[in-house]
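Re: the 508-residue chain
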Amino acid sequence: MTITMWRADRVWGWLGPIGTAVLAFVLRVWNVGHPNKFIFDETYYAKDAYSLLQHGYVQDFTEGANAQIVRGDLAGVMTGEPSWIVHPDGGKWVIALGEWLFGFDSFGWRISGVVVGALTVLVLARIVRRLTGSTVVGCIAGLLLAVDGMHFVMSRLALLDVFLTFWLVCAVACLAADRDWIRGRLDRYRFVRPWQLLAGVSFGMACATKWSGLYVLAAFGLLTVVWEVLARRRAGWRDGWLRTTLMTGAPAFVSLVIVALLVYLVTWTGFLLHHEVYEARFGRGYGDYSAPWGDYVDHPSKGLFGEVLDAFRSLWHFHVMTYGFHTNDLNSATHPYQSNPAGWLVQWRPVGADAQFDLPATTRCGQAAGETCVREILILGNPLIWWSGVLALVGSVVTWIRTRSGTWGIPVVAVLACWLPWFQYADRPIFSFYAVTCVPFMIIAICLLINALIRTGSSPRHRYAIALAIGIYVVAAVVTFWYFHPLYTDELIPYGAWRDRMWWSRWI
């Protein structure tokens, strides 16, 4: 490759992914303020974010706050009491950025998700380009994520999972870059790894959004060490397995785990600075969910060091109380859209985030005489992408075993780390949209297979046939997205058109 071609490839390697990200942003931002109300768990996270902006910690809201906020009246919507938050503040601070810039309304609390969703498309396109060496395949990955229904809807709601997805994709992208970085530097052990440090920051933000990021951190922390140990052994290092593992694993532990922990703690700064208000409400017991936190609640420690110690002890007890809520107190709860993780990857039970049925004919949805109208926001993945993604994951496992190439392990390990841990919580209300973290990695598996298929072309005719098949698949994914688009955007449609899109009875 000439220098001119190399430069052109680098330019297009950025322009192409940026273009797909811009497309994703345009698709997501259109009419994102509709409907002007709190959808599903927005009632928690959007309000928590606003409270963080106003007070630095989360307060409870009054009983009629939702209607009052939608009217634009923010006077007296908070009680002044600290709220028991069941997820860390990292993702809510990102939501708060949108509210700070655009105000506390439906557009303001959703715009951060739109931006982060589009950025996820950009990062995914770049990581696939790195893994395949193809800008075209990277752009295909970005386009597939741009037209996935679940990621699309989650990017348009003030829920936490789209932020978790972004940070996990960033972390894996950094570790893939670190793997390439270290391959040319195997002459000695490297204890300062810029890409690993960035991965640690990303993992910290993932865990600060939802604790489920811990599983991906653990899985890829181990995988990163395995990559480097094997690379050093293949390069002729003879330090012994134990020494090589320790000399590789110790810096990785610091860069990933310790850095992630520090970032995680930073996102709890609001709690630490206001720990006294939490101690006052929760420190002596709170319903069935907590027990007294210790004598320091009634007898605070003296001095700055003592206050810092009390703050971190309160944070620890708050975590224990919240963990008990997640693992025990939710077991008796039920929800009509809860589902077993076994069906998540095939979209067995999507989540209806909002719906209005039997709307009268005066709503003018173009229905036949006497037919009612429907509005719905259905958190449903693009069936073509998800179903082919499952097949691609199986193909990736087979290819990983046959070739022993670590590249094929990336989507497999990521999906398993995002998906399998939820089986231990299958007896409590959990939802299929938690699997939105899986879809970028399923798309990586799809694109790795596409790239492998392209490379099998042995003649022009063969290559044209492969290109045609890939083109048909991508177009079909776009058409499928557009077919379900009314269900993703709360569009008013005839009941018959809505019923045609309910392919399985479990989707209703």
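The chain has a mean pLDDT of 88.
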